[in-house]
Amino acid sequence: MININIINKHNILTKVKAPLGANLLDVIKGKGYNIDGTCNSNLECTTCHCIIDSDNLNKKLIRKSIRETDLLSTTTHLHKNSRLSCKINVIKEMENTDIYFPTMSKNTLEVINKEIQKKEKKIKKIIPKKFKNYTKSHIKDIFKRHCPEKKLDLDKYKAITSIIPFRTNNYVVEELIDWNNIPNDPIFNLVFPQTDMLDSIEGIDDFYDFYKDPNKDMITLRKEASKIHEKLNPHPAGQLDMNIPNNTDFYLENKGIQHKYRETMLFFPSESQYCHSYCTYCFRWAQFVGSSKDLINSNSLNYLLKYLKENKKISDILFTGGDPMVMNSKQLGRYLNALSSNPELEHLNTIRIGSKSLSYWPYKYVTDDDAKDMLKLLENTVNSGKHVSLMAHFSHPNELKTDVVKEAIRLIKNTGVQIRTQAPIINHINNDPKIWEEMWRLQINLGLIPYYMFIERDTGAKNWFGVPLFETLKIYQTAQRNLSGLAKTVRGPSMSCNPGKIQLVGVETINNEKVFALKFLQARNPHWNDKLFFAKYDETAKWIDDLKPAFGEKKFFYEDELEVIKKLNKEHLGTSGQLFQNDIKTAYSLVDNKVNYQYEILPDGLSMFPNRVIYDSIN
Ligand code: SF4
Ligand code: FES
Description:
Blueprint: E1 2-7, E2 12-18, H1 24-30, E3 33-34, E4 49-52, H2 55-60, H3 66-72, E5 82-84, E6 97-100, E7 110-111, H4 114-119, E8 121-122, E9 133-134, H5 139-146, H6 154-160, E10 168-169, H7 170-176, H8 186-191, H9 204-212, H10 218-230, H11 249-253, E11 257-261, E12 264-267, H12 286-289, H13 301-310, E13 316-319, H14 329-340, E14 350-355, H15 357-360, H16 371-383, E15 387-393, H17 403-414, E16 418-425, H18 433-445, E17 449-455, H19 462-465, H20 469-481, E18 491-497, E19 500-510, E20 513-523, E21 532-536, H21 559-570, H22 576-579, H23 584-591, H24 611-618
The protein binds iron/sulfur cluster (SF4) and FE2/S2 (inorganic) cluster.
Iron/sulfur cluster binds near residues 275, 278, 279 and 356.
C-alpha cells in the first residue's frame, strides 16, 4: 500500500491508501468517490482525466497510446502531465504524489462516502493548466463545444475577426465565459468581437459582401480590412506623431518609447506586442494588425538605458504593449535587472508593468513552469530598491472570482509588488454601477488598489463601446457612494486624450449655465495639472472632442499651448515629456536657432520649459 493525494475539481485534497498494481480509476471509485468513468475504460470518454503532479513520475508510467493522446487533446485543463486514470496502474513511485481530477463533468469526483468527507481538508492547490491559444480558426469548434444550441452566425464572427484582432485561450473560454449567457455574457463581449459592432462604419457592408465571395484571395482581404482599420482612428491621442522621441538620428532609428508626461516614460518591448487574449475594445489594437512601419517596439537595452540616463526627471517607467507579462522571466529579467542594478538610474523610482495577465492567464504566476522564476524576479526587483507596481487591467468582477486568480494575486503580493487596478467603462461589458461597485469591493478584499476608471478612447468600435460622459459620471458616482474610503483611490472617470488625462469631476450650474467640471490629472505641460476648467453640458458627448468650452469661451485654456508643443515635436525638438525635462537653460538651447525666444523666468518659479515664451515667439 502507498499513500496518494487526490485533489478534486474544488481543490479539496484527500489522502488515500492505494494497493500497488491496482488500477488508479478503480482505487478512486473504491474509496467512495463518484467518478464517472463512463466508457468503462474503453478509451471513449475523458471523464477519468487526471493530472499527475510530477514530471519524473510520468516517465515511469505506462506510455500513452495514440488514442489516449488524442482523447486527452479534447479535454479541458489539459496539462503536460495529463493522463486518463483508467489506463494507469499504481506504482511505488507514486507515494505522496498529488493527483488532480479537474474534469468539468458535473458529478466527477464528488465524495459520496460521508466518512471520507470528514477527512477532507481545504488546500491552496490550483489544478495546473497548459496554455492553449485560440485564434479565428478555433471559433467554430469553441461554439460547437460550448454552446451548440445557440444559433450564432459563424460566418459573421469570422468576417469581423478579419478586421478586429481575435485571440483568446482555454482559461478564458472554460473558466471565465458563462456560455449559458451567450451572447450577453460580459466576458464573451470582452474577447469575441461582436457581429454588429462595426455596423456604423462606412464601407462595412461592402467588406462583408467581399468576405462572402468564395473566390476572395487573402491579400485583397487584408487590403479591404486595412481600409476599415483606417476609419477606426488606429493611433489616437497623438501616439504616433507626438509621443515618440525623434529629436536625434538615434531616436529616429529606434521606436519603442513614448514619452508624453515629464515623469513617466512608456517602453514597448518587442517580445510582448501581443496578449494572452485580446480585448475587443483594445485601444492598442493597431499594434496587432498594423503595418510594421507603424509598430512601436524595441528590444534594445542600449536605447532604453540611454534614454533614461538622458532624462533625469523620469521617475517612472511603464512597460506596456500588448502585455509585458507574456514575456517569460528570462525575457523580462533582461530589462528589469538592467534597470535595478544601474547606479546611473537612481532617479528611476518605480517600474510599472501594465498587464491583463491576472485576468487572462493567472496560471502564469501559479502553476506554469516559469511561475517560480517569475515571482523570484519580481521579488529581486523589489529588493533592489525599486517600487514595482503591476497595473492590472480588470474589466469585470467575474475576472476576480476564480481560485487561480486569487492565488496569483496572493503570490504576487508576497513578492512586495503592489497591484493597482484600472479599466475603461464599456457599453455591453461593465456600464452599470453595480458592476463597478462589486469589482472595486472585490479588489479591496483582495488587497488591490483601485487606480483608474477610464473613458473608452476614441478608437476602434468606439460607437459600439462608448458610454456618454454624463452617464459615465453617474455610474462612477453611484458605485462610489456605497464604498468605503479605501475605494476612493480611484481616479475617474478619466479621458486619456491628446493634451493629457482629463478627469470628469462633476456637473454644476454656474451663472445659470449647466457645465461639466473637468480637471487635468496628468498633462503634457505639467503646469496644467490639477487645473479645473469647464465645458458646456452635453448629453451626447462621449469624448473631449465632442465638448465645447463653457461661458462663451472659444477655446479651452490649453489649446494654444498644445499647438506649440505639436509644432516643436514636428520640428524634432522633442516630445512633451522631453521638453519639460529641462531646466530653463537647456530648454532654451534646445530651441536655439529654431525659434526666436526671449528670456523670461516663469511666474511660478519652477524654471521649467517656458512654453508661453516659445508660443509667443512662434506665433
Ligand atoms: S490586454 Fe490591453 S493591450 Fe491587450 S488587448 Fe486588452 S486592452 Fe489591448
Ligand atoms: S473511463 Fe473512459 S477513457 Fe477512462
